[in-house]
Amino acid sequence: IQKIGVLTSGGDSPGMNSAIRAVVRACAYYNIKCVGIRQGYEGLIHNQMSELGARSVKHIINKGGTFLQTARSEEFRTPEGRQKAFDHFKKNELDALIVIGGDGSFTGANVFHKEFNVPFIGIPGTIDNDIFGTDFTIGYDTALNTCIEAIDKIRDSATSHNRVFFVEVMGRDAGFIALSSGIASGATNILIPEEKDSLEELFESLQKSEQAGKNSSIIVVAEGEELGNVYDLAKATEKRFPEYDVRVTVLGHIQRGGNPTCMDRVLASRLGVAAVEGLLENKTNVMAGSRANKIVYTPIEEAIKKHNEIDKELIKVAKILAI
Ligand code: F6P
User: Fold this and answer.
1) How far does residue 11's CA lie from ligand 1's centre (Å)?
2) What does this protein do (predicted)?
């Protein structure tokens, strides 16, 4: 392997820059050329890429976002789009790809590999923490810290007014962000798609909280919660308890930005090096992850298809501490 292309794809996450830097510098260390591909697979399709040396990634380890930019490429889903991408892959004399992203990005890389035999390694970059084969994804820890900072502020206001707050956090299909940020911010209730919740249970629990002497409540809701979105839940609660003063906050994309935490920078640095070393050892179609603090390579199809189970112990802890 002489030349590796690196790209970030799908939703951005804090720490992607640290991961790009690690890939570029590991390539420099092992005397391999590294090419930065802009806007995910779009850059392959439209030939937007340039060589990156060790110095071209200076001062980015601490920056949120991704300086290569990212996209959810529709064109790459088509055979014509992938053909164009392969033509540019060849033209630029690339030997392999490193794809930093989530399961959608890995699925794209896997199809590309099956069609054109392009070697690749994935690095899990998403705030959702929903990728199998790694204990943590790059960006998750930063997003959690952003959430608890915001929810701490909401608590100040909630307690000052005796209010019930529904706070929506990201997690399209997974409740990892909601569960951990809910525990860390002392939420009275946490609603996640992995648990079957009912409105009656929620109402009972709010009543219990009131009887236990709580004057305000914070209910952290994952975006993918099946019981309803935060606005519907707030409306139903107001209807059931007209005496409650209910408010809604959607944290939204602030969760995707900001300087990565130390945890995310170290994880991104390790996985960037592991991805380059994996390619040098002729590994392909795998994702570099960290499990029990050890680097592991998981077959990409497992990383895409399997899911990390939500930790039942955390659910128990949240319930016990909400007494
Ligand atoms: O997958 C990461 C994520 O942040 C999800 O939690 C969220 O549902 C989604 O991306 C939103 O993505 P976008 O606004 O980029 O479409």
Assistant:
1) 6
2) Catalyzes the phosphorylation of D-fructose 6-phosphate to fructose 1,6-bisphosphate by ATP, the first committing step of glycolysis.
Q: Which ipTM was obtained for this model?
A: 0.95
Contact 279, 1 (CB under 8 A): yes
Calculate the CA 122 to chain-centre distance: 14
Chunked into runs of 10 residues, the chain (323 residues) has average pLDDT values of 97 98 98 98 98 98 98 96 98 98 96 98 97 98 98 97 97 96 98 94 96 96 96 98 97 98 98 98 98 98 94 96 94
Q: What is the pLDDT of residues 227-242, one digit of tens each?
A: 999 999 999 999 999 9
Mutational pocket test of ligand 1: of 172, 180, 255, the residue with most ligand atoms within 8 Å of the beta carbon: 172
Angle between helices 312-321 and 176-184 (to 10 degrees): 30
Instruction: Specify whether the CB–CB gap between 192 and 179 falls below 8 A.
Output: yes
User: Is 152 considered catalytic here?
Assistant: no
Where is the binding site for ADP, in residues? 21-25, 155, 214-216
Q: Residues near 136 by Cβ (< 8 Å), separated by ≥ 6?
A: 129, 263, 267, 290
Q: Is 173 in the pocket of ligand 1 (CB under 6 A)?
A: no
